[in-house]
Structure formats: structure tokens, C-alpha cells
Amino acid sequence: MQTTTPDPVQTTLDATEMSTTQRWRRALAALGKVLADPQRTDQVLVFSVYANAGTMPGRIHRFLEHPDGRRLFDEHRTIDTRSVDLAALGALPVGTLGRAYADFLRTHQLSPDVLEAPPAQVRDPAIAYIIQRLRQTHDLWHVVTGYETDPGSEIALQAFTYGQLRNPSSFVLSVAGSLRAARVKPGLVREVARAMRAGRRAGKHHPLAVFPWEDHWHRPLAGVRAMLGITPRFVAATRRARLDDYPGSGDKSMPGLARAA
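Below the sequence we write its predicted C-alpha cells.
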């Protein structure tokens, strides 16, 4: 995963206080860098903050008005190695949420600590917390949906995320990514549409954004999926999104499209 130092200008201006033109100028500049190099994780995070800043008041309201969302915020829950014992999760029975999460991180050599800091582009504590929470739980969205970390799966997961959150960044990333890959995998466009619909339907059960994952580590993964409205049929079909050769990247994974909620 490529790491770079973000542009100082992008970390000192509050995205929520900018005009629409200012936000989207910075968002599109970051998106251009991502499309040129999908490994630019730092620029995806910059893009997501600026693209979503205009919709954050409504998203904050929905998050905090939900009892679970309010509890998460009041308790300031985080998912990182200081608050989650990954070794203990890895010792849980096969088929539980906690074991599946620990196995996913180990298999893909990921760590929840990568995104332990709140975003620098916003100063409002509620906005910063919600963005951080969504980023830290991104890998759990992978686990419950069945989407892998290859480029096509990341694109489809962004579409599922848009169905849940209606956040502009996920819509742009999923549409732009699927259209760019259409010559290599034409079926990805249909998978993106399917994922959007599935995300919308699942959101009517229990929105993933406010789900208290930490309370369900011992629960069977199948049971958690049922709670979230994610059907076995949907999970079984997520393999259709997989894409082995994304244009512009020699790497078969796409951290650049991850955690952009």
C-alpha cells in the first residue's frame, strides 16, 4: 500500500465550511490522482471527505438519532488494536463474526490501526467521529457482504455503501470504477447496480453504519448477516464482481478504493 504525505492545504481547511465549488475542486483533484494510481489511499480519503462534506449534516442527524449510533458516539467506540483483542477474536469458533473478521485481517495482511486517527479536514467532533467509525469498520463490511479486496469487489462494495449511506463519494467511485473497467469486465456495471439495490434493501433492516459490531463478536456470522438484511444469495453471488486486471494498476488489490465512506 502506497503512503504519502497529504497536501498541507487539504488538512488545514475545514471541508464543511467551504463552498460547493471549493469542495468539489479539491475532491476532483484527488479523484484524478486515484484514477491515475489506484494505490493512492491517501487521496481516496481526501476525495471522500470533500465529496461528502455537503451531505454530512443529514448523515450526522441520521447517525445520532438512531439509538445504536448515539450509543456509539457517546461511548466513543473505536475498532483498533487498543480496543479490540484480535488474538482473542482469532480464537473464537469458526463461523463467528469475530473469527471471520480476524481471519479476514490476517489473510489480507490488514490492520485496523491504519485509520486510527480522525480525519484532519474537519473539526466538528461528531463529523470526525462518524467518518472515523465508518473507515474503521470498512473491513467488517467486507466480511458480512462477502466482497473480497480485489478491484472489482472494492468497486461493488462502494456501490453497496452508496445504497446504505447515499454518500456522493461512494457513488462516484463505484460508477467511475465500473465504467473504467467495463472493457475488461463488462458485467461489473450490472454488479454495481445490484450492489446498490442490495445496500438500499439491507439498510431497511439495520444500517451497517450504526451497527455495534463489538457486541456481536461471538454471534454466528450467518446470524449477523440476517440481522443486517444481507441474504445468503447475495453473499454467494459477490464473486461475480471480482476483477483480476484493473486498468492502470499492476496490483491485484485496491486499497485505494477502500474505506472511502
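Residues 1-12, 248-257 have pLDDT under 50 and may be disordered.
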